[in-house]
Structure formats: structure tokens, C-alpha cells
Automatic annotation (TrEMBL):
Keywords: Disulfide bond, Electron transport, Redox-active center, Transport. The record marks D32 as: Deprotonates C-terminal active site Cys. PANTHER family: GEO12009P1. Pfam families: Thioredoxin. The keyword Glycosyltransferase does not apply. InterPro entries: Thioredoxin, Thioredoxin-like_sf, Thioredoxin_CS, Thioredoxin_domain. The gene is trxA. Disulfide bonds join C38-C41. It comes from Halobium salinum. The active site is at C38 (nucleophile), C41 (nucleophile). CDD domains: TRX_family. PROSITE patterns: THIOREDOXIN_1, THIOREDOXIN_2. Residues 1-111 form the Thioredoxin domain. The record marks G39, P40 as: Contributes to redox potential value. This is Thioredoxin.
């Protein structure tokens, strides 16, 4: 396990290959596609950090401005978009601000 996962903090994704590595090496991954200018993304940030700290999911943060090609390839049309992966496969996707309870329930269901 990576040192970042042990601290329970979200991992800043640096490239498409980095994201693929995270998805393929961890059982449950929550990918948060966001932008710094996005108000709802900023509202969701504390919840995403809590999910990283309190669940078994690895949380990966993808800045859609920094990684435009990746966001387009993944079909991200609005932010925040939250994509869940289970055992390396896409499992569920939600768009917009979500409650911590709803996100935790998805993680538990996938686990």
C-alpha cells in the first residue's frame, strides 16, 4: 500500500497512467473529478476527505483543468463527478454534490 493511502488522504492524480495504477492496485477507488473554480466541488471537498480517512476506499482527485484529456476520455461532462471502481472495473458514477452517507453507502456496498 502506498504511504498516501495509509494516512487516509486523497491522492492527487498526476496522469492517466497514475489513475490506472491506482484503480488496478486497490480494491475500491473513488475518483473525484473536480475543478478549483467549481463551487460545488469545493463544497464536496470536506466530504471527500472524510471518505478517504474513514473508509477502505482510496480517494483519487483528478483536476479536470490539469488533465483535460483524461476527463474527456472518461466522459466527464460536469463537475463534481464521482466515479467508483471496484476490483479495477467501473462500478458506479454520481454527478453533483452528494451526502457523506450516500457515498459511504456506495463504498460499503462495493466492498
Amino acid at each position: 500500500m502506498s504511504e498516501t493511502q495509509q494516512t487516509g488522504a486523497p491522492i492527487h492524480v498526476e496522469s492517466a497512467d497514475h489513475l490506472q495504477e491506482l484503480v488496478s492496485t486497490h480494491e475500491i477507488v473513488l475518483v473525484d473529478y473536480y475543478a478549483d473554480w467549481c463551487g460545488p466541488c469545493n463544497m464536496l471537498e470536506p466530504t471527500v476527505k472524510e471518505i478517504a480517512a474513514e473508509t477502505d476506499a482510496v480517494v483519487a482527485k483528478v483536476d479536470i483543468d490539469e488533465l483535460q484529456a483524461l476527463a474527456k476520455e472518461e466522459g466527464v461532462r460536469s463537475v463534481p463527478t464521482l466515479q467508483f471502481f471496484a476490483n479495477g472495473e467501473p462500478a458506479e458514477r454520481v454527478v453533483g454534490v452528494q451526502s457523506k452517507e450516500d457515498l459511504t453507502a456506495i463504498v460499503e456496498r462495493l466492498g
